[in-house]
């Protein structure tokens, strides 16, 4: 079975939803499929805003929710005939009413817990997936909508819950055994804890939902439908002659994602990677484009460099001094100090002489890093064993990514 995931821009308007329906129709011809949907683009942000405004005690949430409702109702009006519209319009109206009540509660107690926020956010994915399901049915494509909260079990870390894979995989498998539907529709992003409370899987979590389902049922492929035609060999904003990458390995894709090309987010695809299920990145607005196929090993003989990518606003920290040569523990203390200050390290080098250690961090953490490290090594600096931390900002990291580079010499020289 194929699992297809459509992001927020793919369900952003009635026009794009029609494209989604066409894609599902075409996929269905070859056999049953599962579809995971995000909220309409911008909805999650608006719902957060609504909750926050209620928490501040103002009634701005009323307008925000009414805009959200209006947008969904307009989309429905554009998608359905009068006869087919009734049930789904009704559902959206009831849902918006419920949201208003929830936010009113938040406004009264002036408190928005992450638990309540998760409940508020769940409406985005639920409504969008219900609309797609209803549209498929209206177009004669039989399908079954299933609330992902009944399948994906997590802990109670609201906002960024951790999945209980044993329970989740069992529930997903049971669902597919019990259901004979040809098209399965699931809202992305949402899950529930053991007490039945709604949880969410972190921003952008619909990819994760799709990967979890694909892995649980050993899907043939996970298709991520988005608004670009896959991964590019470099950032088109900086490089003129970029090419689309047609095949890539997971590891190369992760390197490219890490260094800028955010088509996939590595932690979310981990479940399918672990099973070797291929991921196909496709463009909803250009479905004929072959997209990018991400696999454990890429079959085709390939070019040496798969892509070039970069991150900017980088600060390089260097810890130097003859006093740390041959003495264990300096790097541990350096990284401890950074980690205590919640500073993420992007790149690490140490010279073989052990006379210097360099790490790259984001520019915005430069001052905190300087303070944290100089404080940690106060004594060593005072007695001249090492120098105060060197800090240089405004760098970029440029990365050449390609599995085949390791069998070849001269790439970096070139
Ligand atoms: N709607 C959620 C978000 O905006 C999840 C997703 O789109 O994947 O983060
Ligand atoms: Mg999204």
Q: Can you walk me through this structure?
A:
The protein has twelve helices and 14 strands. It is an alpha/beta fold. The strands form three sheets. An eight-stranded mixed beta sheet has the order 3-4-2-1-7-9-10-8, sandwiched between helices. A hairpin with an 8-residue loop joins strand 9 (about 280-285) and strand 10. Helix 7 (about 205-215) packs parallel to helix 9 (about 265-275). The protein is globular and about 80 Å long. The protein starts with a strand and ends in a 13-residue tail after the last strand. Bound molecules: aspartic acid and magnesium ion. Aspartic acid binds near residues 7 and 205.
Largest beta-sheet characterization: 8 strands, mixed
Bound small molecules, which ones?
aspartic acid, magnesium ion
- H/E series: EHEHHHHEHEEEHEEHHEEEHEEHHE
**What's the number of extended β-strand segments?**
14
Specify Rg, calculated over alpha carbons: 25 Å
| Strand fraction | 15-25%
Which spans have pLDDT < 50 for at least 5 consecutive residues?
Answer: none
Order of the strands making up the biggest sheet: 3-4-2-1-7-9-10-8
Task: Give the proportion of residues in helices.
Answer: 40-55%
| 3D shape | globular
User: CA-to-CA gap between the ends?
Assistant: 44 Å
Structural class: alpha/beta
Count of helical regions: 12
What average pLDDT do the residues reach? 93
């Amino acid at each position: 079975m194929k699992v297809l995931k459509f992001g927020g821009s793919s369900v952003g308007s009635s026009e794009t939803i029609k494209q989604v329906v066409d894609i599902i129709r075409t996929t269905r011809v070859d056999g049953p499929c599962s579809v995971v949907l995000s909220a309409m683009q911008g909805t999650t942000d608006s719902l957060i805003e609504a909750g926050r405004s209620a928490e501040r005690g103002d009634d701005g949430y009323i307008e925000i929710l009414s805009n959200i409702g209006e947008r969904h109702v307009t989309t429905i009006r554009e998608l359905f005939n009068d006869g087919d519209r009734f049930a789904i319009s009704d559902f959206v109206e009831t849902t918006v009413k419920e949201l208003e009540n929830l936010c009113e509660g938040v406004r009264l107690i002036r408190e928005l817990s992450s638990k309540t926020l998760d409940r508020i956010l769940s409406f985005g994915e639920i409504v969008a997936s219900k609309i797609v399901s209803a549209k498929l049915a209206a177009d004669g494509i039989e399908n079954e909508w299933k609330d992902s909260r009944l399948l994906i079990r997590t802990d109670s870390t609201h906002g960024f819950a951790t999945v209980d894979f044993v329970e989740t995989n069992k529930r997903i498998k049971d669902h597919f055994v019990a259901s004979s539907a040809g098209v399965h529709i699931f809202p992305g992003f949402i899950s529930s804890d053991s007490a039945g409370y709604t949880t969410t899987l972190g921003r952008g979590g619909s990819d994760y939902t799709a990967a979890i389902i694909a892995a649980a049922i050993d899907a043939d492929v996970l298709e991520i439908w988005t608004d670009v035609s896959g991964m590019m060999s470099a950032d088109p904003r900086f490089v003129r002659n970029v090419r689309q990458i047609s095949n890539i390995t997971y590891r190369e894709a992760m390197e490219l994602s890490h260094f800028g090309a955010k088509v996939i987010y590595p932690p979310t695809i981990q479940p399918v990677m672990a099973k070797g299920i291929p991921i196909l990145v496709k463009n909803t607005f250009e479905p004929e484009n072959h997209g990018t196929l991400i696999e454990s090993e890429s079959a085709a003989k390939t070019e040496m460099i798969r892509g070039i990518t970069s991150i900017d606003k980088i600060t390089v920290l260097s810890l130097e001094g003859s006093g740390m040569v041959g003495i264990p523990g300096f790097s541990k203390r350096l990284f401890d100090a950074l980690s205590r200050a919640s500073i993420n390290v992007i790149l690490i080098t140490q010279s073989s002489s052990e006379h210097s250690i360099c790490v790259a961090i984001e520019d915005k953490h430069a001052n905190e890093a300087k303070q944290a490290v100089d404080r940690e090594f106060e004594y060593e600096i005072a007695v001249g064993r090492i120098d105060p931390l060197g800090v240089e900002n405004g760098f970029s990291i440029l990365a050449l990514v390609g599995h085949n580079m390791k069998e070849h010499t001269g790439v970096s020289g070139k």
